[in-house]
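Hi U.,

Before I forget, here's the chain from the pilot set. I'm dumping it here mostly so it's searchable later in email.
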Amino acid sequence: MYKKILFLLFVAITTISCHKDNFNNSNPYLANYGFSTDVNMSLPLYNNLQFASNSVKVSVPNGPINGIIVFNTGSGYLAYDGSCPNQTITSCSKLTLSGINATCGCDNSTYNLFTGQCAGKQYPLKPYRVEVNGNVLRVYN
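Structure:
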């Protein structure tokens, strides 16, 4: 009897926690922009995204002020806000890309693009959703 109850409880919790509407990207320094943009990896500008550990910065009209960063992990794609997650938006808060890292110009903190984390920082990179449809990535919030 206990096994059945535990199993049902496990299934319920797993189902609720895996629901995509539970996606949390709140950050007090970065606004929540409602946007959707397509990144066509067949275009020369985004062709590097077809290879693991490559990233590109994408400008998004009516989206994040400093654009978005799209990163190929080798097993999928991640997208992040292009602004420093632990800084108020200023002229220095634009992230720059270097290999598998993004660096904040304000304090030279370096964020790992695989995890979005930076040692000693409160907030990780702000993530966005990514859907893959052939060679086109749809990035949205």
